[in-house]
Amino acid sequence: xxxxxxxxxxxxxxxxxxxxxxxxxxxxxxxxxxxxxxxxxxxxxxxxxxxxxxxxxxxxxxxxxxxxxxxxxxxxxxxxxxxxxxxxxxxxxxxxxxxxxxxxxxxxxxxxxxxxxxxxxxxxxxxxxxxxxxxxxxxxxxxxxxxxxxxxxxxxxxxxxxxxxxxxxxxxxxxxxxxxxxxxxxxxxxxxxxxxxxxxxxxxxxxxxxxxxxxxxxxxxxxxxxxxxxxxxxxxxxxxxxxxxxxxxxxxxxxxxxxxxxxxxxx
Length: 267
What we know:
Strand 7 and strand 8 form a beta hairpin. It is built from 4 helices and 15 strands. The longest helix is centred in the middle third of the chain and has 16 residues, at 152-167. The protein has a single domain (3-257), classed as 4-Layer Sandwich (Glutamine Phosphoribosylpyrophosphate, subunit 1, domain 1). It starts with a strand and ends in a 10-residue tail after the last strand. It has helices at residues 16-24, 61-68, 130-144, 152-167, and strands at residues 3-13, 36-41, 48-53, 73-80, 96-100, 103-110, 173-177, 182-185, 191-196, 201-203, 210-212, 222-227, 238-239, 245-249, 252-257. It is α+β, with helices and mostly antiparallel strands.
């Protein structure tokens, strides 16, 4: 399948260290060589910088260049692909992107959805993946519910219901953001770590590269990284259990759906 990566921070923060570790798994230390992508929101959350390529990230000069960019954001999402549905093509690379209610929305998925997927209409997939169909359907549910993206209780409840319904079709680990918050749902594999003062040193699991975050972060900085598998070898990552979901704002978990909660159907 694929691997996911996301950042939520209370101050504009780059994801270069984590993204470098992820790219190693895109064909070097891992088999996810069918494409990659990064979406980094402007600090005001209104615009998004999106980079995608249908090539192995580990050997891509473009991915290396993106990894060197100082893309500081409150929310960022990245993805490396191992194709299960859909051919290897640029239009099938995550993150996927749409505009709704005057804001940019970004989505990435790890998993495989089987059987008939919900129909889409208002938002039409550009590629041939189950993931993009799911993203379009989620946006349609938000639109049908007239959801207010600023109403965290409402938006979280709707996203949880969508994720619960989709994971009945297969494996649905996902990330979605509109630049103000980050939603993460685990169906099988997802981990998170929150870094705050006192900051320490971390070493990538897939490369001999370490960073002392005390030299880079301010005393009030809070940064949460979400990843399919832990990206560092010397930090404690918290696994999300199957069915667990979180909503992050400024690096903090502001809404939480515990595993084992009853499934609430979409009206």
